[in-house]
């Protein structure tokens, strides 16, 4: 069982965990009376319940918000600019993803792909412009958007299985403990980590950690999936298997297209983008801007062996590589 520390009593990893709960809008800080110490409170639907000094032993399951039914969501980025101090990282970004689109973001290192994903996740606020999910401006992180970060961020104090379990509990708060465990194990098995349930992140390789992070994001079952180079650290075989699994999941065997997740997927790999995407967005650098948006109408299912040698695929690949290189010194791009 996990315990939520009170607002000023948490230290080290607990403080990270507490901050994560706040970012996920599962908890907030409140003073119960003027001059009182800060308390961590649970805010399901805005109704706050004290989890502070008087009730420090609340289990994580009690923190899980009621999950809305899975829906398809559109995402719009309207005139977003963002700076880190004096450095303008993104300038006037406009993007629109219809519900169920698979958008791949391609661009040279440092052009602001991760920054854009953090903005979409609600972890940063735009300096100008706004981001709408399902027509509503986002105000912070939310359970409608699952994120796989570039640096495979698992909670280091939880085992791989517990990391995934946390997402399953959030997604299905009303289901049984047995269901939670079974689902978490199934998600780990999908990324070939069935034996790693009890392993701590420090005991896993970088690629294994990334796979566990992917399992956790998929377990959240959010309608919007934000993935930052999720397969970048993986060996070629695992990468191929996970690309296919992601496509299967997104295509939704037996489902209608409108039930698909809306995906934003950062990659440096042009072939990966062409294999996965309905839309490829090519970004330029200094500051990050959009160089081009391309609808990828290659037929599905996209099977590497038959797709890659085709003239259409090779032509589109070359066009994307050329655009990526345009205006860049030769050694500044890892994309080709
Ligand atoms: N926390 C930060 N503080 C200051 N500058 C930052 C911070 N995070 C990113 N930057 C800067 O913002 C720019 C964009 O970074 P970002 O990580 O979004 O690039 P990226 O396109 O994801 O690159 P890569 O392909 O290497 O992952 C870079 O110049 C980077 O140095
Ligand atoms: Mg990045």
Automatic annotation (TrEMBL):
Keywords: ATP-binding, Nucleotide-binding, Transport. Pfam families: ABC_tran (PF00005). SMART domains: AAA. PROSITE patterns: ABC_TRANSPORTER_1 (PS00211), ABC_TRANSPORTER_2 (PS50893). CDD domains: ABC_NrtD_SsuB_transporters. It comes from the Bacteria. The keyword ATP-binding applies. One of its GO terms (molecular function) is ATP binding. The keyword Nucleotide-binding applies. InterPro entries: AAA+_ATPase, ABC_transporter-like_ATP-bd, ABC_transporter-like_CS, ABC_transporter_ATP-bind, P-loop_NTPase. Residues 75-310 form the ABC transporter domain. This is ATPase components of various ABC-type transport systems. It comes from Pararhodospirillum photometricum DSM 122.
